[in-house]
Amino acid sequence: MNKYEFTFLLPDEAEVEPIRALLESLKGKISDEQKWGKRSLAYPINKLMSAYYITWMLEIEPKQLSELKKKLNFNEKLMRYLLLKIE
């Protein structure tokens, strides 16, 4: 399994659970979780000026990673995300 840092923005903290369920359905594991809380945005996204930030350290297989990205792109509640591989 490869390790990744996954930072994402949501309009509300309650929207985290569907993303967690998606990750677990793809047999990914969260090794660390950092909740940044509600922060102001530099520019509006979907007419919102603030978002809930969260960062996870993930472990997931590369095959499952492409499936995760595809499903994240179809999630309408997810405002933005950044997924980086940890060496």
What layout of secondary structure does this protein have?
Elements: E1 2-10, H1 16-25, E2 29-45, E3 48-60, H2 62-73, E4 80-86
Antiparallel strand pairs: 1-3, 1-4, 2-3
In a nutshell, what does this entry contain?
This protein has 87 residues and is of the alpha+beta class. The protein contains two helices and four strands; from the N terminus they run E-H-E-E-H-E. Strands 2-3-1-4 form a four-stranded antiparallel sheet.
List keywords for this structure.
87 residues
Q: Could you please describe the fold and organization of this structure?
A:
This protein is an alpha+beta fold and 87 residues long. It has two helices and four strands, in the order βαββαβ. It has helices spanning 16-25, 62-73, and strands spanning 2-10, 29-45, 48-60, 80-86. A four-stranded antiparallel β-sheet has the order 2-3-1-4. β2 (29-45) and β3 form a beta hairpin. The model has no long low-confidence stretch (mean pLDDT 94).
